[in-house]
Design a protein that fits this description.
By secondary structure, the chain is an alpha+beta fold. It is built from 7 helices and 4 strands. Strands 2-3-1-4 form a 4-stranded antiparallel sheet, with helices on both faces. The relative contact order is 0.26. The mean pLDDT is 96. The structure holds adenosine-3',5'-cyclic-monophosphate.
Length: 138
């Protein structure tokens, strides 16, 4: 099974949708290997999204991701990276296909309810960010 990483973002946690999103992921065939409620510090958010550091939305993204608790989840499934991205829908919630998590629970291109790793290599890096040293049950 392939592995990936998701974060239920502060907008979705604040709205009380974390449980519904977790159920959606399980219904989509993902195994929850490890799960943590987190509150990102500014330094953690900057490090996690370092690849976007030069983008005009970086400051707003860091402010958003540190605005409240989030939920990080290590996931496994066949073809997990691509399947999670299909299950989430397009980055901009306003453009996300009906029935996808971002369509159901997000608002716009920033407040889009959920993050998912965009490649198996990034999945390894992002999983280590939150779950290094944890026993992961497949
Ligand atoms: P995510 O998939 O977590 O990866 C980077 C995040 O930056 C993205 O979801 C959005 O929350 C945010 N983002 C991406 N593009 C934009 C944009 N054009 N304007 C504002 N925020 C963006």
């Amino acid at each position: 099974m392939e592995e990936t990483l998701t974060i239920i973002k502060p907008d979705a946690v604040r709205a009380g949708n974390a449980g519904r999103i977790i159920a959606h992921l399980e219904d989509a065939g993902f195994v929850i290997q490890a799960i943590r409620r987190i509150r990102l510090s500014r330094a953690q958010a900057e490090a996690f999204y370092a690849v976007h550091r030069e983008r005009p939305f970086f400051e707003d993204l860091v402010a958003f991701m540190t605005s409240g608790p989030a939920v990080a989840i290590a996931l496994a499934r066949e073809n997990a990276v691509a399947h999670l991205r299909d299950t989430m829908g397009a980055t901009d919630s306003a453009q996300a296909a009906p029935g996808t998590i971002r369509n159901l629970y997000g608002t716009n291109i920033q407040n889009n309810a959920i993050h998912g790793s965009d490649s198996p290599d990034n999945a390894r890096v992002e999983r280590a960010f939150f779950f290094a040293g944890c026993d992961l049950v497949g």
